[in-house]
Write a structure and sequence with these properties.
This protein is an all-alpha fold and 440 residues long. It folds into two domains: 152 residues, Serine Threonine Protein Phosphatase 5, Tetratricopeptide repeat; 256 residues, no CATH class. α1 runs parallel beside α11. The chain is elongated, with a radius of gyration of 26 Å. The termini are far apart.
Length: 440
């Protein structure tokens, strides 16, 4: 009874603290980062167009250009002050033979220029769209502005061609292809991951057809704890996450360091604290990590990831399209990391450490405590609801709910937390692979 009062007081303190502003939260504005993400996505499609070879002039090239145009348009709408997004959109419109749209976009970019020099350069680029003579002098004026834009070759090469300098036009296309070449291994890796997920999906479907009773297996022995301990773990999880994030703001973290640390460290501290509490009050707790069937659990996890990942991503894409975009929690973290070592560390944390902690909490503690009292389906639904709400994304609520149900199903079928942990890690890994391609 006394322990229940302590955790009730802790929950009340958390609610009151959030209400009156005792705890600081991550308040970095999201739209600017989304604008950057959309702009990078447009750059990716432009670079794929440069590398398309003879396919440039066919339907495939047109689809790549229209995809780039869509993302540049989203970037300019998300951040109307972005000069680069407007100019990039105009350059792609030029490639699609929409000269009036290209001229208007570049003129609007000039209006939003951050200096008189940039304004003059952008206006020179706008005039080049209508210029029929291929003025190399005008191109030299616009080059400093165009040099930082991925689609600049569309305008530069056309000016050289109009001036009768086909050698310079060919050299411009060759330079654009050379600058785009580093994206090839990233796209190759993404294709390989997609293929692995497809194999996993096929294996999962075959297994489901072979054993149509989805809830036939048992999730192991009943836990040594019950629903009260699960509630205590969740309260402690939220409390530690909020307090840790607030402390990071008060201890000197700023800028890129703050974005990365505030998105990762609280999750690790909260997960470790919640799991450690249950272990402390119930020393016989084993959480459901049965490693005697490791390969089977790994294969089952990959199969579940192959089914869940495309479904969740399609759902989230549809919801993002219907409403305003909401940032994925890994986006600010990945965008804030510059070096290879830091990104490798993020992959380890996001694909191994966090999935292990969250699966121990949500499936090993919450789901198993509910499963001891209820049948599998309601226990999975309630644990998935808690899992989804915990990700703090209203657009991602339904996709995360679907993922939570699938992870509970994986645990129920396999009898070990290894399966949902592998599926969870693969899901995060695929999201990171997409970010790697977009952010470079």
């Amino acid at each position: 009874m006394s322990r229940g009062l302590v955790f009730a007081a802790l929950a009340a303190l958390l609610v009151i603290g959030l209400r009156v502003g005792w705890f600081e939260t991550l308040t970095q504005p999201g739209p600017e980062r989304w604008a950057v993400l959309y702009h990078h996505a447009g750059d990716v499609y432009v670079r794929m167009y440069y590398l398309a070879g003879p396919a440039k002039s066919g339907p495939a090239g047109s689809r790549l250009l229209h995809s780039a145009l869509r993302y540049y348009t989203l970037s300019s709408k998300t951040d109307p002050a972005s000069v680069e997004a407007l100019a990039s959109r105009g350059l792609v419109q030029l490639a699609l033979s929409d000269k009036s749209g290209a001229r208007a976009a570049l003129a609007n970019a000039a209006l939003r220029a951050r200096s008189d020099k940039e304004r003059k350069e952008a206006l020179s680029a706008a005039r080049l769209v209508s210029d029929q003579t291929g003025s190399l002098a005008l191109l030299r004026q616009a080059e400093p502005f165009l040099s930082g834009l991925a689609p600049a070759a569309f305008l530069t090469a056309s000016v050289y061609a109009a001036a009768g300098r086909s050698d310079l036009a060919d050299a411009e296309w060759a330079r654009a292809e050379q600058d785009s070449a580093p994206i090839i291994p990233k796209l190759t890796g993404l294709v390989i991951i997609c293929g692995l997920l497809g194999v996993g999906a096929l294996a999962g479907l075959v297994a489901s057809l072979a054993r149509w009773r989805a809830w036939a297996a048992s999730a192991g022995s009943e836990p040594a704890w019950g629903v009260p301990e699960a509630i205590e773990a969740l309260v402690l999880w939220v409390f530690l996450a909020v307090v840790t994030a607030s402390l990071l703001f008060r201890t000197g973290f700023r800028g890129r360091e703050l974005i990365g640390a505030a998105a990762i460290v609280p999750s690790l501290v909260a997960g470790c604290g919640a799991v450690a509490w249950v272990r402390l009050v119930q020393r016989e707790s084993r959480f459901g990590w049965d490693l005697r069937r490791s390969w089977r659990g790994i294969l089952q996890g990959l199969a579940v990831a192959g089914i869940l990942t495309p479904l969740a991503l399609v759902l989230e894409h549809l919801l993002q399209s219907a409403w305003r975009p909401v940032e994925h929690p890994l986006v600010p973290v990945f965008a804030s990391l510059g070096g290879g070592a830091s990104r490798a560390a993020l992959v380890v944390v996001a694909c191994a450490v966090v999935p292990a902690l969250e699966e121990t909490l949500f499936r090993g503690i919450v789901y198993r405590s509910l499963r001891a009292a209820w049948s599998p389906l309601p226990a999975a639904l309630v644990s998935a609801l808690i899992f989804s709400v915990g990700h703090l994304s209203w657009v991602g609520f339904v996709p995360y709910l679907l993922v939570g149900l699938g992870l509970a199903w994986a645990y129920e079928r396999s009898g070990t937390l290894l399966a949902p942990a592998v599926a969870h890690g693969a899901f995060n890994g695929f999201n990171l692979a997409i970010l790697l391609v977009l952010f470079g």
